[in-house]
Amino acid sequence: ENIFDRSRMAPKTPIKNAPVDLSKQKGCTPERNPITPVKLTDRPQPDPWTPTANLKILVSAASPDMRDREKKKELFRPIENSEQGDTTDSLQDDMVDDSTVDEFEKQRPSRKQKSLGLLCQKFLARYPSYPLSTEKTTISLDEVASVLGVERRRIYDIVNVLESLHLVSRVAKNQYCWHGRHNLSQTLKTLQEAGELQYGELMTFPQKEQDLEYKTGEQKKETIPDTQGKPPLDFSEPDCTSASANSRKDKSLRIMSQKFVMLFLVSKTKIVTLDIAAKILIEETQDPVDHSKFKTKVRRLYDIANVLTSLDLIKKVHVTEERGRKPAFKWIGPVEFPGKMDELRGHSPTSDPLLRTQRGVCAPYQICATGKQRFTRHTSFNSVQPCEGSRRKVSSEPNSPHQERQDEYCSKIINLAAVCRQKIEEDTGNKACAKKTILTSIKNPSTTSALSLLPVPRDADFCVNPLPQAVFPVVQADVPNLSLLNGVSSQALHPSMPAASKTENGKPTLLPSQPFLCFPSSSLFMLCTSLQENSSRETLPTTGGMGNRNAEGQAAVPPPACQKRSSHECTSPSVPGDDEEPAAKKQTMERSDVPLSLVVPKKSFESPKAEPTQGSACTSAVHLEDFHLDHASPAAPEAVQKESTKTLDSQNQEKRSQNKDPDEPSPGKEHILKENTSQPFLPQYLYVQPAAGLSSFNFLFTANQTPGAISLAPSQLPSLSVPCVVVPSAALASFPVVCSPSVTGPLSPVPDASFSAAASMNFNMCSLASTAPVFIGTTSAVVTPKVTTTPLVDPQQPAHPTPHMSPVLARSCGALQLDSPVCMGHPVTLLKLQQPSSAPLTPKSIRPAHHEAFFKTPGSLGDPVAWKKNEGNQTRNASSVQRRLEISSTSPD
DNA sequence: CGATCCCGCCACATT
DNA sequence: AATGTGGCGGGATCG
């Protein structure tokens, strides 16, 4: 355009060559022209501009020209009216224009004409999408700004987003280098991987370090320290981290952009609503204050979305949820990147996944690390890319670089995951999210489950429908069982079970029966899982085979990551990929160390644990929304389980059939569930999430033994007699209580069976509720296999398990993902899970607190309701208050 | 009236 | 101190 303009302009304009006609034509008031000065240049540019005022005028004036050009381009077309404008000059004229313009319709430069999206299109039109590698195009911000007739500030908005996708890189002050889309797929791939890791897994995290390095400020708020940046940093590289990392505000816009893109890449549906994205992106804070923050975030997202839209990567759509329609964006860019996954993702079925995952995971992380390394400025990739550098890509890519930010980015990304979790929680609290979730959940029962929990409240409508129907049946059956459950629970409680300890199978015994109870009204959410890292991992491979069935692989990416994490403990930051894994493992490890950790609502305790939960929730929510995940995550774990479980599965299936709602999620889910179910899971933790806002769901999961072990409130649970209890919020009331059928019967008999039963229960729940429960079940199932199952109850020992639990869950998820497509969907979930683990990291510090909290909780638990209330309210504040109780399920080894 | 998001102040970073 | 960057949010416009 510029060119055109100039050429045209030249002739036209009286002025010299103002780049834009605009100025010339109209209006440029003399003054204005003169003003311009600044910079500019040497070149042909017009002098006139500069001043914004002038610009505006110019713009208006120019508009006509613009439009012509635009038309050419097409871009403008959409705009329609906007264009016109030729008319008059000066501002005054604008008014006139309208009248005058009749012909065109135009109205002066309407706001749209000046939209960032349009501006971006113009900007992009200036450069070739696929420039010759050899030639390098440099972009002068001033020049562009003047040519396009906008203030430089706007150009920054565009460039920052483009930079996040590596379409451009900053070379120097005011100078950017245009790369075009050559690396776009690579970048997206990297982002996807990173997204999977983060969101999917979460990271890890080392709280401690984090504190030091990054400021705690924000992070801590969340309570999710881990999630936040630190972990990444830690992982990535120590050195860098501190430095680069440092806070800085970093360009949130860049980071946000990447995160935003990651959400799309991770989501199944490829649709992300603004509010969800905003929630996820809001890293810190959660608290009340946020509102304004949320608003600001959304504003930024619009900016980003406009640019992405111009890039044809996304398009605006509306998602109508039950309530109403929400603005959302659909990813229309490439979904699969050549080569991208390959190893990483691993959707490969079976065993591969593990490998992949591990490695794959590493890669992403690495990336981050890399980024960090560079403190200074490298340009090449900012955030996400890290991977490249470190791992494969390497790249050098770019030349240059500048910007150290990447490191930060990486960390941030990590944080994002955490944030997401938190947010999710919050969201859950909030209705909107919940709704979505619910919806999604409905669609995908399993997947949603987690999410659904959150949403529950409001959506009751929705929720109800799906859930109730499906659920009820189950419940009914279950109810009777309660007694059984009790029996079971008792068993569970008594961790002593050696059998359980033995291994996965054994463990089941504990859980066996765990049925679920859903109470409407409470807001508690408890998640119990127990798992061991090892087992889970191991299982994963197997699982892969099992779970894969569906293996859609689509987005599956996440799973791998999870697995990865789980697989490795590595602390070493050096390897990116490893980082996560290690972290994850570590987390798990750590947790394991800690016998019982309670996860308190994030903030309150600050313990990381809470985070995970949230994170999971968040993720799930995200998925749901976007994708409706599948509950794949759960499935993954199952694979392992399958062995013993199969029988269970069969049972489960039956149940499922019953349970299934009309809606019924996809079969895949069922599978997953089955798998999950099959695996016994041991609830190590209890998660209580009371979302303040959420309200609707409360879940109580008992780990198998946990309850007993925990001592939580045996009385409480016991009374229930169900290992897991899900309590919907009051609002939920609609929900019936659900007891896992399987549980009832089985309990005593065979541990395995019981597990399976339990698992099934969970699944059922999920299907029914379509919400969180499912996840839980899954995770737990996954976890259980090994350690968890073991019944040990010792608090401390259990603690060990506990830690695992979260990790386990994550792992399991990862496994699931790997295996089945479903997993893919769930990736997010998984992530969340991991996060928790990460959160947990802190085991140390946390532990004590947790314990206390933990205990408390139980007490509170005594009354489910009361419990909910109390905690829910309290916790809420943090966005999600989640508490995890770890139950020691068994003593891990 | 809610969704969008332009506009530009102003703080922080870099030179 | 000047200039580059870019966070941020008021408030206008759109639908």
Automatic annotation (TrEMBL):
Listed name of the protein: Transcription factor E2F7
GO MF entry, a single one: RNA polymerase II cis-regulatory region sequence-specific DNA binding
Superkingdom field: Eukaryota
Family: Belongs to the E2F/DP family.
This protein's record includes keyword Nucleotide-binding: no
GO biological process, one term: positive regulation of nucleobase-containing compound metabolic process
Subcellular location: Nucleus
Location of the E2F/DP family winged-helix DNA-binding domain: 111-180, 248-333
Residue spans of biased composition, Basic and acidic residues class: 65-77, 215-224, 582-593, 640-672
Renumbered residue ranges of the record's region Disordered: 1-94, 215-248, 382-406, 536-617, 635-672, 857-893
Main location, first listed in the record: nucleus
A Pfam cross-reference name: WHD_E2F_TDP
Record field: compositional bias (Polar residues): 81-90, 872-893
Gene3D superfamilies, per database record: Winged helix-like DNA-binding domain superfamily/Winged helix DNA-binding domain
Family matches, as InterPro entries: E2F, E2F_WHTH_DNA-bd_dom, WH-like_DNA-bd_sf, WH_DNA-bd_sf
One Gene Ontology cellular component annotation held by this UniProt entry: RNA polymerase II transcription regulator complex
Source species of the chain: Turnix velox (Little buttonquail)
This protein's UniProt keywords: Activator, Cell cycle, DNA-binding, Nucleus, Repressor, Transcription, Transcription regulation
Secretion signal span: none
Gene, per the UniProt record: E2f7
